[in-house]
Target: Procollagen galactosyltransferase 1
Amino acid sequence: MPARRTHLALCGFLLCCVISSGSTAGSEGAAEDAPHVFVALQTRNSAHLLPNFFGYLENLDYPKSRISVWVRTDHNLDDTPAVLEAWCTAVRDVYLSVDCQHSKKVVFDVGYPPPDTDEQYRHTASVQQTALEAGRRSGAQYFFVLNTDNFITNPQTLRLLIAEDRVVTAPMLNSEGNAAFSNFWMDQDSLGYYKRHEDYLPILQRNFTGCFRAPVLLPPLLIHLSSPQSQSLIYHPPLEGFNGPTDDIVHFAYSAKMGVITHPHSLYLSLSTLPCRSGHVHL
Ligand SMILES: *[C@@H]1O[C@H](CO)[C@@H](O)[C@H](O)[C@H]1NC(C)=O
Model:
């Protein structure tokens, strides 16, 4: 009998929870409680991708009144600035804040094919750093950095990443173009470049599922800005002692690795193989 009563009590409690969360979902009260997320995007020559990208962003199951949007673009050969401006104007009052800027300053030669030089990588890394600093200044609890070809098809992704409760977390993406591409590396060579690891394919093919520690993560990734450990993360300039390539991804990974030394067991990049299929990634 006692066991049966306990069981009934538990049912009643769960029912209450369901009713109360159902009645507040989507209300102002629930939205105010959601952590402030700073969404950062650096984009170029992506007019063909932006409509899909923004569609998926808007589709996230997360209160827009708790999302700040920050977008920077430069060195375009297509209509990216116009597409961006149209979207940013349309959603200006929908999100907590919308800060989109098109810089016409020429930092490197534009041409086709686009140059692939240290100067360009340095520029990209410094814009990423500007984004991270803007996120920190905004007081947001989370920094969610994306690339335009990250199509987040699972609307729960942001909520699931926040629930992982780690300093840096990425949802694993599958690429539509190349089945072996994704947004994580499991190993690096001595200079910090990509190196294949035996766990890479089983993780990519979801034979191993769960959350993994990864030395290098590419966007989309979520940084928990309110965690003190995230303070040591940096895109540019690379931390002292770094002697690898000029690349924001590798600089960032190095700062996370150094952070592990400073804060053992607390700062590491983690990869979550969420049960979603997000795609279209290029490394
Ligand atoms: C993953 O599992 C599938 C189905 O069992 C198998 O065919 C495939 O070879 C596995 N992949 C890896 C990398 O182990």
